[in-house]
Amino acid sequence: MKWIPKKPWRQKTGPVARARAGSVATETEGTQKTLERIISKAGAGSRTQARTWIHNRQVQVNGKVIENPDLWVDSKRDKILLDGKPLRKRQHIYILLYKPTGYITTFKDPEGRPTVYDLIKEIDQFVSPVGRLDLDTSGLLIMTNDTQFGERMTNPEHKVAKTYLLKCNSLLSDEALEKLRTGVELSDGPTRPAVVKRVRDSGKYTHLEITITEGRNRQVRRMIEALDSKVLKLVRTQIGPVEFGDLKIGEWRELESEELAGLIATPTRTRTSAPAPGSRTRETSRSPRRPDAPK
Questions:
Q1: E strands within the chain?
Q2: Which of 176, 193, 169, 178 has the alpha carbon at shortest distance from 227?
Q3: Which residue among 110, 159, 202, 206 is least enclosed by CB atoms within 10 Å?
Q4: Do 101 and 63 fall into the same domain?
Q5: Rounded Cα distance, 213 and 81, in Å
Q6: Phi-psi bin for 143: left (phi > 0), alpha (psi -120 to 50), beta?
Q7: Residue 59: which CATH number?
Q8: Residues in a beta bridge with 235
Q9: How many domains does the chain have?
């Protein structure tokens, strides 16, 4: 009699089985993601909100109440309910906010400080900031419920250019500006070459315009600190091809289709050398200074 080996035992891997086993898995490509991430990607709320809803037993998967936000589910095959209603992907919205100083970019602040969400209360969909602007930085901030777009814009491989006006607390030499153009060493590695223009020197202060293609934490401030100076005022004036236009501080508008297409398109290669004296480039013919630009 021929012996036939048994097939290896396989654990059930459906969402309910994984929940019972209490397994926590890392995300994979495709339609399988953690439950809290799927809820967030659908535009229903932030990942923090999603975890709260799950812990409060407001979420069901295939008829079972799930309390594990790290549970793997399949967004196409599994039936997900939030407060008894099917989870559906919302229409994408892309807004441009002129963030004032004194506002943070998180949804809620334990210290009770104002957030950018206080400025967009009329929007009935949850949107997340694409990148961050710290408390003391003003300027352009894109917010959207399109998580794939947000991830693309913040991925340094896509080199989305971001332009800032800044005021330094000291006079910077041409040699110092050249260091910014070639890259400076930070605690997390050297920076990419930046496009730098001296706007003016006034008294003991240097005013600069700088364009970078990275999005590290406090990057512009740290670049200036690497030159033994400090940023006194910082305004983000442009993201890719998107500029202020008629937007006033504290206001927001939806992105135009042309602006959105320009953001998604491959960005222009960053110029790393200083312009020739007296030459006119796009950088030197930029629109007039914004009301809150460094003075």
A1: 32-34, 59-61, 64-65, 72-74, 80-82, 85-86, 94-99, 128-129, 137-144, 162-168, 185-186, 189-190, 195-202, 205-212, 231-239, 242-243, 252-254
A2: 176
A3: 110
A4: no
A5: 40
A6: beta
A7: 3.10.290.10
A8: 138, 165
A9: 2
What domain range includes position 229? 95-264
Q: Are residues 213 and 73 in the same domain?
A: no
Give how far the C-alpha of residue 26 lies from the chain's centroid of Cα atoms, to the nearest Å: 22
The b-or-e profile of 209-229 (16+ CB within 10 A means b, else e) is bbbbbeeeeebbbbbbebbeb
Indicate the residue among 61, 86, 111 that finishes a domain.
86
Same domain, 120 and 19: no
- Claim to verify: residue 145 and residue 199 sit in the same structural domain: yes
The string of pLDDT tens digits covering residues 187-235 is: 999 999 999 999 999 989 999 999 999 988 999 999 999 999 999 999 9
Closest to 78 measured CA to CA, from 58, 92, 63: 63
**Active-site position among 83, 118, 134, 188:** 134
- In this structure, the answer to whether residues 132 and 28 fall within a common structural domain is no
Whether 134 is a known active-site residue: answer yes
CB 93 within 8 A of CB 123: yes
As a whole-number percent, the residues of the chain with pLDDT over 90 amount to 49
Nearest to 243 by CA among 224, 256, 230: 256
The per-residue pLDDT of the chain, averaged, comes to 81
Q: What is the pLDDT of residues 43-101, one digit of tens each?
A: 777 777 788 889 889 999 999 998 898 999 888 888 898 888 888 777 889 999 999 99
Q: In this structure, which amino acid lies at residue 279?
A: S
